[in-house]
Design a protein that fits this description.
The complex is a heterotrimer.
Chain A (H helix, E strand, L loop, with lengths): L1 H24 L7 E8 L4 H14 L3 E8 L3 H10 L6 E4 L3 H5 L18 H4 L3 E2 L2 E2 L2 E2 L3 E8 H6 L9 H13 L3 E4 L7 H6 L11 H10 L8 H15 L10 H9 L3 E7 L3 H7 L5 E4 L10 E4 L3 E4 L6 H13 L1 H11 L14 H11 L3 E2 L11 H12 L5 H18 L1
Parallel strand pairs in A: 1-2, 1-3, 8-9, 11-13
Antiparallel strand pairs in A: 3-12, 4-5, 6-12, 7-9, 7-10, 7-11
Chain B lengths: L2 H31 L4 H6 L11 H9 L2 H32 L3 H11 L10 H10 L6 H24 L5 H8 L4 H12 L1 H17 L2 H6 L9 H6 L9 H36 L1
Chain C lengths: L1 H41 L2 E2 L8 E2 L3 H8 L2 H33 L5 H9 L6 H23 L2 H4 L6 H29 L3 H9 L4 H12 L1 H16 L3 H6 L11 H11 L3 H27 L6
Antiparallel strand pairs in C: 1-2
Classes of the chains: A alpha/beta, B mainly alpha, C mainly alpha.
């Protein structure tokens, strides 16, 4: 009896596995296909589901299991990769992650749908001439400011240098408005706050910069831009109220939305959270000041879709990406559902305020890439923590510079 | 009782009441804020909800897939705890009885893992689970708890079993009991109060555990535990406190109910474990 | 003949022993032993935790750990401060409340049960609850009462944040330790106290010279338990402060986690965990030996 059952079970299993095997070779038309995606960015959860629902409606044989994580994304993704439970499609950063996940990702060199991206858009995902992933969306970050409060404080011209920024802060304070909510409570906000202001390092030749860091010719902490960045952090801290180290992203959004502060350093992904509290708030970007007095906005398509090369349903996954690039809904998904700029050539412009400002900055070429990701992988967290230790008073300027130098040495060492 | 000591008791009583109110006030705040809208939490934390609404709870209940998630957590907890009880009671008892070098060595080997921080072997544990094809499955998670929970429980059982008289076993063996009968009929019942302790410690641990389910579950067939489901409300860019509070409530309440029902035996169990161990 | 049967008996005992102990040894080996040995293996290698290859580098990870890692040193420092703070505060408070609960007040059982409630909540949730209290609620209390204590940056100031993690963890575990101490005190024979009372010893003196020595077993258990737990502290900090501000509240376990997963240096993180294991082991052994000499039979 028992043996019979087991035999039946085995037979059943084999049929199932041969079916799924079959769907690799046969185009996935009718055979049921189950995909597993793993994304970060929980603020887009609803949008992800919307996209998946639209796709599976047109392809009823496909069902997609989606896992959305944030704080532990790295850890869990690692455990999935190690366990062989590789998501068919997952998200990562661009640049250094191109090589980090190299053992697992399918290159999109020959895919027709990748022609929907311009060559410049693809630079962040190109490694040794291979296209290692598909750009997700163009995000931007800088100082988001409240236009009404600026007006109220009598500020007519936006600051472009550190001194002007200081003057603006003074004016705001005089008008009884707290200038900043710092965001220093979360380590990932600090790299974002400082690297745009350091983007004039090596005149923007970041490849050379990291080459020199790698060879030891440049001690990262000795870049003059580091001093400038620390000055900027000092300024933000000075004007961020009593508890600058407790300001987290959610607090930034609510402080900003309720009109308690005039500026936050954060990105286009915050617009929805802010509007959830204050639907009609009038906001824009103040560009990040630099030593060379050319203020910039950090703009990049950094989040990248990665296809698992060992996926049993590779064709279906590629079809899904194709759907995102070519179907009407897929092309409008980023601009109209997420509300940010799509990296697809010729896609609609979103009607969100920050995205419009981003487009304007792009047109005027006052942007910088998310260049810190061009460095070795694994530096973002220690980089953020080093600056966080500085603003928290745990380390002074010299110590911070030393730590910055060392963390790049360590990171290259670990590769 | 003298007047002076009566007054003293009055003061102590009052102090304890006030202190307890303060002590539990954070939980009270969680309770009231679970019923407020996001805007109201942002503007008015301390007051009672202006319009009492269960919408948050309902949404979170739905998003967490509460019934299924609850069941998963229950399965992991029950299978995990039962397995731990079986292997730890057997092992702990025997290691207390046999006083050889090997036994001592076995005991040290079994309890040493109490010193190992989980973070240090969690990724390699995932590899082991993968090799065994038990990752992503609730019962697989439960079985892993057998290995992780056994050390502490063996420690407790061994300490407890040291105090049980030998005569009963000997007379049972003379009466012709085999080892299985001996253990299930004679020894295990004698370990009862230690079993209570072990049950409580492991149920609370597995019910509340977070990192292991995070690594082991999810994936293709995403089955979550309550802790994982609640944690998904605690994202990076968004702190939706009303949902976080509701999720917290939905997790605390079953535990609280369980605690209130079994309060007496729980307290007894915890104490027994500590005193004997 | 005699020797033979003895041998047989010995074999039988050994078999029995194996039968009882094997399941436990098997599962512990499988799910702790093997992973931990693999962790030791990786501690001698360079591996990012993702790639399919790793490289043998000998003792390099360990050497770096001791000569060139301020993050680990600061984690070590924090962990010790946290452990000492938590262990002292929670044990002193628990003994204090246990003593109060042992006096003849009403509703003793109720108080014991109520103090235990935070213990049934997971540390991750506790962390979020207190994050909410320290940010949102304190802000509201500040504007209502104007008391400076609520205006302090409990999670944002480096020193205060360390203190906050200690307090929250005391809050969570206090009830557990009260239970243990109450039980310990119930074991103290009342005659001892009464005769001391007749001899004219005051309540405080009685407490220190009679109760404390007699509850040494409880104290030793609680110390052992709280020390081991604080040295491995992870989840509460993970959700309460995230290790911040900066690295002010980054415990060793959290530093290991960051090294292995956020900085992609799994091999190095493994070396750190081996060291943490050794630290916990050494401290526990010292503790067990210390208290062994102190316990008094009641």
């Amino acid at each position: 009896m028992h043996k019979k059952q087991i035999a039946l079970l085995m037979a059943g299993l084999m049929t199932v596995s041969s079916l799924t095997m079959g769907s690799v070779t046969v185009m996935a038309d009718d055979d049921p296909v189950e995909l597993y995606f793993m994304f970060n960015g929980p603020e887009y959860t609803d949008a992800y589901h919307d996209l998946i629902d639209h796709y599976t409606e047109e392809h009823p044989n496909v069902s997609i299991e989606l896992e959305v994580l944030q704080n532990d994304y790295q850890t869990v993704l690692r455990s999935r990769l190690n366990s062989g439970e590789v998501p068919d499609l997952f998200l990562s950063s661009a640049y250094s992650d191109n090589t980090l996940y190299a053992d697992y990702i399918y290159n999109l060199d020959d895919e027709e749908f990748m022609k929907n991206f311009s060559e410049t858009t693809l630079t962040s995902v190109t490694e040794d001439g291979h296209i290692t992933g598909m750009p997700f969306l163009v995000q931007s970050h800088g100082f988001i400011y409240n236009k009404a409060l600026f007006e109220q404080a009598g500020i007519t011209e936006l600051p472009t240098t550190l001194d002007e920024l200081r003057t603006v802060c003074e004016k705001l304070t005089d008008a009884g408005i707290q200038p900043f909510s710092s965001g220093f409570g979360e380590w990932w906000i600090l790299p974002q706050t400082v690297y745009p202001s350091m983007s004039d390092a090596y005149d923007g030749d970041y490849d050379k910069l990291f080459e020199d860091v790698k060879s030891g010719d440049l001690k990262f902490g000795e870049l003059p831009q580091v001093d400038f960045a620390l000055d900027l952090l000092d300024l933000i801290k000075e004007y961020s109220g009593d508890k600058p180290m407790e300001s987290t992203n959610d607090l930034q959004c609510s402080d900003f939305a309720t009109g308690k502060v005039a500026m936050i350093h954060n990105g286009s992904w915050d617009e929805a959270s802010i509007r959830a509290i204050a639907p009609d708030i009038d906001m824009g970007y103040v560009y990040m000041p630099r030593m060379d007095e050319k203020a910039v906005l950090a703009v990049e398509s950094n989040l990248t879709f990665r296809v698992a090369k060992d996926s049993e349903n590779l064709d279906t996954v590629l079809d899904f990406l194709n759907y995102m690039c070519t179907s009407d809904y897929g092309r409008s998904w980023v601009p109209s559902v997420i509300g940010d700029i799509s990296p697809l050539t010729g896609a609609d412009a979103p009607d969100t305020q920050l995205a419009a400002e981003t487009a304007a900055a792009q047109d005027n070429s006052v942007t910088c890439p998310w260049w810190i990701f061009k460095g070795p992988e694994g530096v973002e967290e220690p980089f953020g923590t080093a600056f966080q230790n500085y603003v928290a008073g745990n380390a002074d300027r010299d110590e911070t510079k030393e730590v910055l130098t060392q963390l790049f040495v360590d990171a290259y060492d670990a590769m | 009782m003298s007047k002076k000591s009566k007054a003293l008791h009055g003061v102590i009583q009052l102090f304890l009441i006030l202190f307890l109110l303060l002590y539990l006030s954070p939980l009270f705040l969680v309770g009231i804020n679970a019923f407020k809208s996001y805007q109201e939490i942002m503007t008015d934390v301390m007051s009672l909800p202006s319009a009492f609404t269960c919408d948050n709870i309902k949404n979170v209940f739905h998003d967490m897939k509460y019934p299924a998630t609850f069941l998963n957590t229950l399965i992991a907890t029950v299978i995990g705890t039962l397995g731990i009880i079986v292997i730890a009671s057997m092992g702990g008892y025997k290691m207390a009885r046999v006083k050889t070098r090997y036994s001592r060595f076995c005991f040290l080997f079994c309890i040493a893992p109490m010193m190992i921080p989980f973070q240090s072997f969690m990724l390699t544990l995932v590899n082991v689970a993968t090799t065994l094809h038990i990752n992503g499955k609730i019962w697989g998670l439960a079985i892993i708890y057998w290995g992780l929970g056994a050390p502490m429980s063996i420690f407790l059982y061994q300490g407890f079993a040291k105090g049980i008289p030998l005569e009963l076993e000997e007379s049972a063996l003379i009466d012709g009991c085999n080892q299985f009968q001996l253990f299930t009929r004679i020894i295990f019942p004698m370990l009862k109060s230690c079993t209570a302790t072990v049950t409580i410690i492991n149920v609370m641990w597995i019910w509340n555990d977070f990192l292991l389910p995070l690594l082991m579950l999810g994936g293709r067939k995403s089955s979550k535990t309550l802790q994982l489901a609640a944690y998904s409300f605690m994202g990076q860019y968004k702190m939706e406190w009303q949902n976080i509070m509701s999720a917290a409530i939905l997790i605390i309440i079953p535990a609280l109910i369980l605690y209130l029902i079994f309060q007496k035996s729980i307290i007894k169990g915890v104490v027994a474990g500590a005193v004997k161990g | 003949m005699q020797a033979n049967s003895q041998k047989q008996k010995a074999r039988k005992t050994a078999l029995e022993f194996a039968g009882y102990v094997a399941p436990a040894v098997f599962f512990i080996t499988l799910f702790v032993g093997i992973p931990f040995v693999m962790c030791i293996y990786y501690s001698f290698r360079k591996w990012n935790g993702i790639g399919k290859t790793s490289e043998f580098i000998g003792l390099e990870n360990y050497i770096r750990l001791f000569i060139n890692d301020p993050a680990f040193v600061s984690a070590l420092k924090y962990t010790f401060i946290y452990a000492i703070g938590t262990v002292l505060i929670v044990n002193v408070l628990a003994i204090f409340f246990a003593a109060l609960l042992e006096s003849k007040i009403k509703g003793r059982g109720f108080f014991r049960a109520a103090f235990y409630i935070p213990n049934i909540i997971s540390l991750v949730i506790i962390g979020f609850i207190w994050k909410f209290i320290c940010t949102r609620v304190f802000e509201a209390l500040m504007s209502i009462t104007g008391w400076g204590i609520f205006g302090l940056s409990w999670l944002g100031d480096s020193q205060l944040a360390v203190f906050s993690t200690i307090i929250v963890s005391v809050w969570q575990s206090l009830g557990f330790y009260i239970l243990i101490y109450v039980a310990g005190m119930q074991g103290v024979p009342t005659e001892l106290n009464e005769s001391a009372d007749l001899d004219g010893a005051g309540a405080v003196r009685r407490f220190f010279s009679i109760t404390i020595p007699l509850i040494m077993p409880s104290i030793s258990f609680c110390m052992f338990h709280s020390v081991a737990n604080s040295l491995k502290m992870f989840e509460l900090i993970f959700s309460l402060t995230g290790g911040g501000p900066g690295t002010s509240t980054t415990s060793i376990a959290l530093d290991i986690y960051n090294t292995a997963f956020n900085n992609s240096r799994y091999g190095y993180g493994s070396a750190k965990s081996v060291i943490l294991f050794i630290i916990v082991l050494v401290i526990s052994v010292i503790q067990v030996n210390f208290f062994k000499g102190k316990e008094v039979e009641a």
